[in-house]
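Technical note accompanying the year-one report. For the benefit of new consortium partners, we illustrate the data format agreed upon in the data management plan: each record pairs a sequence with a structure-token string. No post-processing was applied to the example shown here.
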Amino acid sequence: MSRIGRFLATPFGLAVLACLALAGWALWSGGVLDGTVARDVRTSSVYAAPGTGLDEAAAERVVGNRRLVVLLLEPGADLRQGCDRVRHAADGTLVLVLARDGDEYEQYGCALLPGVGDENFGRAFVAETTIGRGVDQFPDRPLDALKVVVVNYDTLVRSGTVPDGARTISPSLPRYLVAAAAVLAVLLGSAVVFAAGRRAGRLAADRRSRLAEAGDARTALSAAAAVLAQQIIDLDARDHESGAFRRRFRRLVSDYTALLDELAAADERTAGSLTERVEALSARARRLAVP
């Protein structure tokens, strides 16, 4: 198995794949592959091709929040293709595609309203053929033509042909999921960092404590060894003592000499036991010093 395959087989790798899939879904549903018209329609109810003379800002105010999308394309454009371009971006609306043709408009309607299916085919057909009625009276005034379209739409709503309701533009489900995943990642990441920080703090505190204890133990050992060495020096000065004293003194010096190598190699693990042995020798030296 390759290195990438082994990585993807881990829980982290699977999480990365899931995040990539979710991000791809969010990009696709958000219109990353959309053309110019579809991107415009996702956040607007009106698209006007350059040179058509329609003021889009004024046209959007006329349409308002109705479930209506109007595309004003350049003369000679493929109206059916224009409708197909916005089928995903304008989902849930009634779309009218217009293009100037001399003294009138070519028009093509497509009902993308909710619930439009086989059982509502008749209503969809009526809506598509009625929505553009009367626009040919204003070939040079596209904004007035749009007002006629809005009147037609309101008539269809009142007759029940088109369901009433406002168009809402909201982020797609994957974007909500991405946002939730981001928040969850921040919370989990913060929890992991907090737990890791606390553990690191505990480990550091334990290490400092052990180092302090080890330092205290080595300090105590050094002090005890210094006291013992001074005792031996003081006893060595008593050269007038009896033979029994000198035999006991030589044994003490021999035991101290045998302990010197261990004292030089002492660490935090052996300092305590060595301190006890040094103190035992020191007690022997005190007893030997008593006349």
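Partners are asked to follow this layout when depositing records. The two ends are 84 Å apart (CA to CA).
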